[in-house]
User: Which sequence fits this backbone?
């Protein structure tokens, strides 16, 4: 019999299951989440159909939706199947897009957005066209098992993102029951325990070889070669260099200020520019045609991350990574210079000291770091070198 619940009862209900009659129930979890569920029998089997949450679906609307579903059952129509057919329940791919957009405001940079999308598109493709309320544990295992032990970091991130998408679907009333991508107490019993990876070092070039490498690099006439040399001289991350904009550069003061949103630590970072670094930028400033210091072939886009790796490959330096040049700089500074560790770590944009020490550290030692970076640039200067800069994009 309808009418057992009231709006006030719905709002005040504690954890439990409450009937409104006609097999319409309000279910309140121990965490306080609420949802409407209609139970019915289809071809001899008990079924449950989510009708939304009281936040977005009122008691009156829930009764109306339940009545409509019951009429469909009486007419020989499966209301769950019909809702999927007419687009009432989003697919996993559609839900993933919604979640990514909702979370994007909290991402530090565009790279995180791209990673979120590409991970799901690449590895969770079998789920993309499935309605979110049909995804089961076996479906999740089917996409995780092939990479669980071979690409453990990617697999862990993938599982977490699938879980978040399905949690969002449940919160919106499109799913019921436990999340099949949940780890603790669920998938941890079904997947092999991953070996905990220690954070490895990026393959680095011995610092004794860097000057000769830069000498060979300057034989190239590409913009990519200039970007890679600039990256080496500033000991910056490749993403920071490739995303560099002219608004961040003060050539007169010889300072590049990377905004917090583009830094791994989420803090603004000032980079003192050596004479050679400035010499790379000045000709580029004279011919700039957009915001990016190292523009790509596509309008209003920077050079791709792949181009630096291609340059290393072209120069038969496949055994090292772009990021590894930061280690080359760190090894040189520790072995060949007398600069304090704190100055070197700050140059690498590493957080120095504990929270108390950071609170008292008001200066970023810019001028001390300027001497450091000038010394590094001097060490990296090839013995035989041409001062001519070629500016063809590539």
Assistant:
């Amino acid at each position: 019999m309808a009418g057992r619940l009231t709006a006030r009862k719905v709002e005040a209900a504690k954890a439990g299951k409450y009937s409104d009659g006609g097999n319409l129930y309000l279910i309140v979890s121990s965490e306080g989440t609420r949802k409407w569920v209609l139970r019915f029998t289809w071809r001899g089997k008990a079924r449950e159909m989510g009708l939304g949450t009281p936040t977005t679906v009122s008691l009156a609307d829930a009764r109306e939706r339940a009545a409509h579903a019951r009429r469909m059952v009486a007419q020989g129509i499966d209301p769950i199947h019909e809702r999927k057919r007419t687009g009432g329940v989003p697919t996993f791919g559609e839900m993933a897009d919604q979640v990514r957009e909702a979370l994007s405001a909290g991402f530090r940079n565009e790279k995180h957005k791209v990673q979120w999308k590409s991970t799901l598109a690449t590895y969770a493709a079998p789920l993309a066209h499935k309605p979110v309320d049909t995804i089961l544990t076996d479906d999740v295992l089917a996409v995780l098992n092939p990479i669980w032990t071979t690409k453990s970091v990617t697999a862990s991130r993938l599982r977490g993102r699938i879980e978040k998408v399905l949690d969002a679907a449940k919160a919106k009333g499109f799913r019921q029951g436990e999340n099949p991508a949940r780890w603790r107490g669920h998938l941890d019993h079904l997947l092999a325990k991953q070996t905990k990876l220690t954070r490895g070092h990026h393959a680095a070039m011995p610092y004794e070889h860097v000057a000769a490498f830069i000498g060979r690099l300057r034989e190239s006439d590409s913009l990519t070669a200039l970007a890679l040399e600039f990256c080496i001289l500033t000991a910056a991350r490749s993403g920071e260099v490739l995303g560099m904009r002219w608004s961040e550069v003060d050539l007169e003061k010889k300072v590049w200020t990377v905004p917090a949103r583009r830094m791994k630590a989420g803090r603004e970072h000032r980079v003192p520019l050596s004479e050679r670094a400035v010499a790379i930028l000045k000709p580029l400033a004279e011919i700039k045609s957009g915001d990016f210091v190292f523009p790509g072939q596509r309008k209003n886009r920077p050079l791709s991350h792949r181009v630096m790796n291609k340059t290393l490959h072209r120069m038969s330096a496949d055994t090292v990574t772009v990021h590894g040049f930061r280690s080359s700089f760190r090894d040189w500074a520790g072995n060949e210079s007398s600069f304090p560790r704190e100055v070197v770590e700050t140059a690498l944009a590493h957080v120095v000291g504990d929270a108390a020490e950071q609170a008292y550290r008001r200066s970023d030692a810019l001028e001390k770091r300027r001497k450091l970076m000038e010394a590094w640039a001097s060490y990296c200067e090839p013995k035989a070198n041409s001062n001519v800069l070629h500016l063809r994009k590539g």
